[in-house]
Automatic annotation (TrEMBL):
InterPro entries: Gfo/Idh/MocA-like_OxRdtase_C, Gfo/Idh/MocA-like_OxRdtase_N, Gfo/Idh/MocA_Oxidoreductases, NAD(P)-bd_dom_sf. Residues 52-189 form the Gfo/Idh/MocA-like oxidoreductase N-terminal domain. This is Gfo/Idh/MocA family protein. It comes from the Archaea. It comes from Promethearchaeum syntrophicum. GO terms for molecular function: nucleotide binding. It holds the Pfam family GFO_IDH_MocA.
Length: 429
C-alpha cells in the first residue's frame, strides 16, 4: 500500500468512528447498553474464577507459617490452574482473622492484612458464621478444636485443622462424621506427610531393598526447648495446662514423627513405653521412651524430651544390615533436614534438599511452585487448596490418619500406666 492509499484508509476509519460516535450520542440507551456489554464481558472472564476466602482462627505461632503459605498460593494461583487444567480458576485469599486476644489479631494483620478482623471471646464463631468465608484454618490450642470443627462443618466451611486433631480419637471420629455429613474438606496438619525428606525415605527404602538388606532398627531422638515457658520465644503457656493441651511432648510434638514413620512403614503392631513428668505439670509428660513395633517387623525406638537448653533437634538413625541413613533436623537451622547415607565401607554422602523436593512434588503430582521457603507447610496448604479445587471431601492428609496416630499414642500412654506391652487393635487404619 502506497502512502496515498494509507491516508485514504486512515481517513475512512476516522470517518466511521465519528459516524459511530454521533449515532451513539443520538441513542438514548447508549450508556445502559455500554454498561451491559461491559458487564457481559466481565462475567465471561470471571465465570470460571472463584476466590476462596480463607479465615484464620488463632493468630499465634503456627498461623504465621500458614499465612505465609496462603500468600504464596495466592500469588501462584495461575500456575496451579495450569497444572490441573481445572475448569474452576480458584484463587485462595487470606480474608479474615480471628483471635480471642484482639491485640494478637491486630498485630498479625500488620504482617498479613485481611479484610475482616474478629476479636474477643466469640471471634472464632463469628468468623465461621461469616457467609463470605469459604475455608477456615483452625490454629488454636487443642481444647477448642472440636467445637470449631463441628461448627465449621455444619456451616459448610472447608477445614484445615492443626494437630493434634482433638483430645481423643473418639472426638476425631465425630469430626469425620461431620465432614462426611456436610461434604467439606477436612485436613489435619500432620506436616511430616508433606515433608520431602520423610517422603524421600520411602524411595530410598524401596530402591535399595535388595542392596541394603533388611531394615533392622530405627533409632529416633528429639529434644525440644520447653515450648511453654512464657519467654518471648515460647509464649504459649497453654502447652503446660492439661485442660488445654491434654498431654505433653509426645502428643503435642512427636506426634509428627510417629505419624511420619506410620506413613512409611504402615500399621503398628504393639508398643511399650516409659513416661516421665520432670517439670511437674500434671498430665504434661516431658520424657518419653517408647518402643513401637510395626507389623512389617521394624522396631522404632523413640526418645522424646523437652529441655531447658537453647536446643531443638530431631535425629533419626535408620539401620539396615548393610547400610545406614542419618537424618538431622535442627530446628534452629535454615535447612529443613540433612540426610546422609552410607553403604558398607563406602564414604557417607548427603542427599541434596533439591533432589528430595523435586522428587516429592513430582510424586504428589503438584507444581513445584517457586517459593522463598519451599517448606512443608506450603506443600500441606497446597494440598488442602487442591482438595477444595478438586471438590474432594477427603483430603490426601486424611483426618483418619490423625485418628490413627492418636490411637497409637493412647496405647503408648496406656502401656506406661499398666507397665506392659500394648497390642494395637486390628480394626484400626
Ligand atoms: N504443625 C506444626 O508444626 C505445629 C507447630 C506448632 C503448633 N501447632 C498446633 O497449632 C495449634 C496452635 O498452636 P500455636 O503454637 O500457634 O499456639 P499459640 O499459642 O502460638 O497461638 C494460639 C493463638 O490462638 C489464640 N486463641 C486461643 N484460644 C482461642 C480460641 N478459642 N479462639 C480464637 N483464638 C484463640 C491465642 O490467643 C493465640 O493467639 C495447636 O493445635 C498446636 O498443636 C502445630
Amino acid at each position: 500500500m502506497n502512502s496515498e492509499d494509507k491516508n485514504n484508509s486512515a481517513r475512512k476509519v476516522a470517518e466511521a468512528m465519528v459516524d459511530n460516535m454521533q449515532a451513539n450520542q443520538q441513542n438514548p440507551n447508549f450508556d445502559d447498553e455500554k454498561e451491559r456489554s461491559f458487564q457481559e464481558a466481565r462475567d465471561k472472564v470471571f465465570a470460571n474464577r472463584k476466590i476462596i476466602n480463607i479465615g484464620i482462627i488463632g493468630c499465634g505461632g503456627i498461623a504465621k507459617n500458614h499465612a505465609f503459605s496462603i500468600s504464596l498460593l495466592e500469588n501462584n494461583a495461575r500456575k496451579i490452574w495450569k497444572w490441573k487444567e481445572s475448569k474452576q480458576k480458584i484463587k485462595p485469599v487470606l480474608y479474615a482473622l480471628a483471635d480471642i486476644e484482639g491485640s494478637k489479631a491486630e498485630e498479625f494483620a500488620q504482617h498479613f492484612p485481611a479484610k475482616k478482623i474478629y476479636k474477643g471471646a466469640n471471634a472464632g464463631n463469628e468468623l465461621i458464621d461469616d457467609p463470605d468465608v469459604d475455608a477456615v484454618f483452625i490454629l488454636v490450642p487443642t481444647v477448642d478444636h472440636l467445637g470449631y470443627v463441628l461448627r465449621a462443618a455444619e456451616k459448610g466451611k472447608h477445614i484445615m485443622l492443626e494437630k493434634p486433631a482433638a483430645f481423643s480419637p473418639d472426638d476425631i471420629r465425630k469430626m469425620i462424621e461431620a465432614r462426611d455429613k456436610h461434604k467439606v474438606v477436612l485436613q489435619v496438619g500432620l506436616v511430616m506427610r508433606s515433608s520431602s525428606p520423610i517422603y524421600y525415605l520411602k524411595k530410598l527404602l524401596s530402591d535399595n531393598k535388595e542392596k541394603w538388606g533388611s531394615l533392622t532398627n530405627i533409632v529416633y531422638s528429639d529434644s525440644q526447648q520447653k515450648p511453654y515457658t512464657n519467654d518471648p520465644t515460647h509464649p504459649s503457656t497453654w502447652r503446660r495446662d492439661k485442660n488445654k493441651a491434654h498431654a505433653g511432648v509426645l502428643f503435642e510434638h512427636d506426634i509428627h514423627d510417629l505419624d511420619g514413620m506410620i506413613s512409611i512403614l504402615g500399621k503398628v503392631d504393639e508398643v511399650y513405653a516409659k513416661i516421665k513428668y520432670f517439670a511437674g505439670y500434671a498430665g504434661i509428660e516431658d520424657s518419653v521412651a517408647a518402643l513401637v513395633t510395626f507389623k512389617n517387623g521394624v522396631t522404632f525406638s523413640m526418645n522424646c524430651m523437652w529441655n531447658d537448653l537453647n536446643y531443638d533437634c530431631r535425629k533419626y538413625e535408620i539401620f539396615f544390615e548393610k547400610a545406614k541413613i542419618r537424618i538431622i533436623a535442627d530446628g534452629r537451622d535454615e535447612k529443613l533436614a540433612e540426610v546422609f547415607v552410607q553403604y558398607l565401607d563406602e564414604p557417607e554422602y548427603e542427599i541434596e534438599m533439591k533432589t528430595m523436593d523435586d522428587y516429592f512434588f513430582k510424586q504428589i503430582g503438584m507444581p513445584h511452585v517457586k517459593a522463598e521457603i519451599p517448606g512443608p507447610y506450603y506443600a500441606e496448604d497446597l494440598r488442602f487448596i487442591m482438595a477444595i479445587v478438586e471438590n474432594n471431601i477427603e483430603s490426601e492428609i486424611k483426618a483418619e490418619y490423625g485418628k490413627y496416630v492418636q490411637e497409637v499414642i493412647e496405647a503408648i500412654y496406656h502401656s506406661n500406666e499398666i507397665g506392659n506391652v500394648v497390642k494395637i487393635r486390628e480394626k484400626l487404619l
